[in-house]
Automatic annotation (TrEMBL), chain A:
Gene Ontology MF terms in the entry: transmembrane transporter activity
GO cellular component: plasma membrane
Organism field: Yoonia tamlensis
Keywords attached to this entry: Cell membrane, Membrane, Transmembrane, Transmembrane helix
Protein name according to UniProt: Nucleoside ABC transporter membrane protein
TrEMBL record, chain B:
InterPro entries on file: ABC_transp_permease
A Pfam family the protein falls into: BPD_transp_2
Keyword Cytoplasm: no
Membrane topology of this protein: Multi-pass membrane protein
Gene Ontology CC: one annotated term: plasma membrane
Lineage of the species this protein comes from: Bacteria, Pseudomonadati, Pseudomonadota, Alphaproteobacteria, Rhodobacterales
Record's keyword terms, sorted: Cell membrane, Membrane, Transmembrane, Transmembrane helix
An example molecular function term from Gene Ontology annotations: transmembrane transporter activity
Protein name: Nucleoside ABC transporter membrane protein
Species annotation: Yoonia tamlensis
PANTHER family: ABC TRANSPORTER PERMEASE PROTEIN (PTHR43370:SF2), SUGAR ABC TRANSPORTER INTEGRAL MEMBRANE PROTEIN-RELATED (PTHR43370)
Transmembrane feature ranges: 6-26, 38-58, 64-87, 94-112, 151-168, 198-217, 278-296
Superkingdom of origin organism: Bacteria
Subcellular location: Cell membrane
Length: 349, 314
């Protein structure tokens, strides 16, 4: 077989194929639910109810979507420039560490000032963490996929060391966790009494900002140009290396905000289980969003809904909640295939 | 002085060879894929799946070699998914690979929970036992270090020979290497680049899965969720370190494993009392990055690595 480009893909084709990808994912999830002894309709229904069925469930979904919007944006920005940042997990923790360092009483400042400083420090830490692999890529040609992946393991061990050493909570009964943030260092809730913090609003703002950078600025244009064809971009006079490094700073900073928002908004202290893989799930979010910044918000809500819903389904029906992870991985693979097939036709030789 | 004693003990090198074994399988697997032109980032997930598949098969009553075969088949199947998406459809090998790792890992954990819903500690199997090779195992130093390993470790070394011989001494190997260097030339010979690449990815993925199975069936006798713990990514670094050559990659894997064995030993010495244990645990990952940096200037990357081939298009 070979692929033949389609000059003007019809709207039907562009809508049907992604829809088919979602249907195929649901079919596979249903089969897996059957294998585990669950009624597929009950399982899928419970996932939807668990994600949206009550005010509590809905807020939980929005809360879960918050870090995913940040990591999804981080990945989208990087992948657009073909900078393969698989290290969002480490960058998230880098941001979280800065929050734990600055927010536990080291700085006594009014809340708005303190939160701003913490957010900026978090972004700088995350940016630095991605700058190293980016420099290794641009200077020495070391593949950033492997280095960013390995950084995840290295940095998590570093966090583990911090939580058992310098950042350890003296009142923590020996648990590896940081001290609690002082009240001024906590992101307030958007509405009193509802468990949704300003991190979510910040995530939405970040998405709009990234979209503006992407669509309206020279940097956004340069990033896309480098991603589409680095050689051509270089030929056209775009400083490719600089653009890659700027992309790295932006991407790492965005991922770090996920850590900032989780610690300052939700958890109030740093632990080693802060992120159940938000950095990796961000890749799925970004791909499902077709790397579009505003699409990331929608995709993050969708992914968060599946996770929150699956947790609730697992408690109610007993089918393992790993079903959610399988659904997302299959959705990712089917979706990239579907997108390809909107642009190409399969021909037999 | 302590260091000298460690480095000259046969037990140390026996441990290094044991630690190297799963890496050798998976590195050979990745090397086969990459020589054919496909970067397989599914390696981490495939190792997880292989570790589980081999172990659960033996737990369900299959003989040990049956378990190894099951792991290999599961790896082939996952490699099949990767190769369909990355070869004929030519999708981004980064995205497909990461997606496959997520899929294989979550599917493994799901299957584990479905098959063993009630257990708090995973059951143990009768794993491969050391199999001293007659005569050779009596050689001083080299005997205990090399020839008192499990059968699966011997298989890892045999695999390096087979891969090396096949790649450099057979028409099949030539075709695989050409598919990774100059696919158009392969197509001009009337061979199918698609078939060669898909086959290479499937066989390579099978080897990765056996690497995973080594962990549950030889190194340990049970399955844990975070068992593979980045070994797949390390193997990708080892392929680069080995300059895409089986022999050099084997050397890299053993060197790497020796460092890993050394950090375990050092944790128990005076240094371990001062330095936090996390620093020791970081060493394998840091070493991998250093290896990548060291080799960056001299890399002999297969020219068509990560370049999809669409006949008649380019």
């Amino acid at each position: 077989m070979r692929l033949e480009p389609i000059a003007n893909p019809s709207l039907t084709r562009r809508l049907t194929l992604p829809a088919l990808a979602i249907v195929a994912t649901i079919v596979i999830a249903s089969l897996l639910a059957l294998i585990a002894g669950g009624n597929p309709f009950a399982v899928l229904g419970q996932i939807i109810i668990g994600a949206f069925g009550s005010k509590f469930a809905l807020l939980e979904t929005l809360n879960r979507a918050t870090p995913l919007i940040f990591t999804g944006l981080a990945i989208a920005v990087a992948f657009r420039a073909k900078l393969w940042n698989i290290g969002a997990e480490a960058q998230l923790y880098a941001g979280a560490v800065m929050v734990a360092v600055l927010g536990t009483g080291a700085l006594q400042l009014p809340a708005p000032l303190l939160l701003t400083i913490m957010a900026l420090a978090a972004m700088m830490a995350g940016a630095f963490l991605l700058l190293v692999p980016a420099l290794l890529k641009t200077r020495l040609g070391v593949d950033e996929v492997v280095t960013t992946l390995l950084f995840n393991f290295i940095f998590l061990l570093f966090v583990s060391y911090l939580l058992e050493g310098p950042l350890k909570d003296p009142m923590g009964m020996g648990w590896p966790k940081s001290a609690h943030l002082i009240p001024e260092a906590r992101l307030p809730r958007i509405v009193d009494g509802l468990r949704l913090h300003w991190g979510f609003a910040l995530a939405l703002i970040a998405a709009v900002v990234v979209w503006v950078i992407d669509a309206k600025t020279t940097l956004g244009f340069e990033m896309r140009a480098v991603g589409q064809n680095a050689e051509a971009a270089r030929f056209a006079g775009i400083p490719v290396t600089k653009v890659i490094l700027k992309t790295a700073l932006l991407s790492g900073g965005l991922a770090a905000l996920a850590g900032f928002s989780e610690v300052a908004g939700l958890k109030g202290s740093l632990t080693l289980d802060l992120s159940p893989g938000f950095g990796y799930t961000g890749i799925v979010v970004a791909m499902l969003a077709l790397l579009h910044p505003l699409g990331v918000v929608v995709a993050a809500l969708f992914v968060a809904a599946i996770f929150v819903g699956a947790d609730s389904m697992s408690r109610a029906i007993g089918v393992p909640s790993y079903l959610a992870d399988i659904m997302l991985a299959t959705a990712l693979l089917f979706m990239v295939l579907a997108i390809l097939l909107t642009k190409f036709r399969v021909r037999r030789d | 002085m302590e260091l000298f004693e460690i480095l000259t003990s046969a037990a140390f090198w026996a441990a290094a060879i044991r630690i190297a074994s799963p890496l050798i399988f998976a590195t050979m697997g990745e090397l086969i894929c990459e020589r054919a032109g496909v970067l397989n980032l599914g390696i981490e997930g495939i190792m997880v799946a292989g570790a589980f598949a081999g172990w659960i098969a033996v737990w369900a009553g299959m003989p040990l070699w049956g378990g190894v075969s099951v792991a290999f088949m599961v790896g082939m199947g996952l490699g099949g998914i990767h190769s369909i998406l990355s070869v004929p459809f030519g999708l981004s090998q980064h995205v497909v690979g990461i997606g496959l790792t997520l899929l294989a890992t979550s599917a493994t954990f799901y299957t584990y929970r479905v098959m063993l819903p009630e257990v708090s500690t995973p059951p143990k199997i009768d794993a491969f036992q050391p199999f001293p090779i007659p005569i050779l195992s009596d050689i001083p130093f080299f005997g205990p270090a090399l020839f008192q390993q499990t059968a699966l470790t011997y298989l890892a070394f045999i695999l390096v020979g087979v891969v090396s011989f096949t790649l450099y001494r057979t028409p099949l190997g030539l075709a695989v290497r050409a598919a990774g260097e100059s696919p158009a030339a392969v197509a001009a010979q009337g061979l199918s680049v698609t078939a060669i690449r898909m086959g290479a990815v499937m066989v390579g993925s099978g080897c990765m899965a056996v690497g995973g199975a080594f962990l549950t069936m030889s190194a340990f006798d049970s399955f844990f969720f975070d068992m593979v713990n980045g070994r797949g990514w390390i193997c990708i670094a080892l392929v680069v370190f080995g300059a895409w050559r089986p022999g050099k990659a084997l050397f890299g894997a053993i060197l790497f494993a020796a460092f890993d064995a050394l950090q375990i030993r050092l944790q128990q010495t005076g240094i371990g009392a001062v330095v936090p244990y996390q620093v020791f645990l970081m060493m394998p990952y840091i070493l991998s990055i250093l290896a990548l940096i060291a080799m960056s200037r001299r890399a002999e990357v297969p020219a068509a690595l990560m370049v999809p081939f669409n006949k008649g298009e380019r």
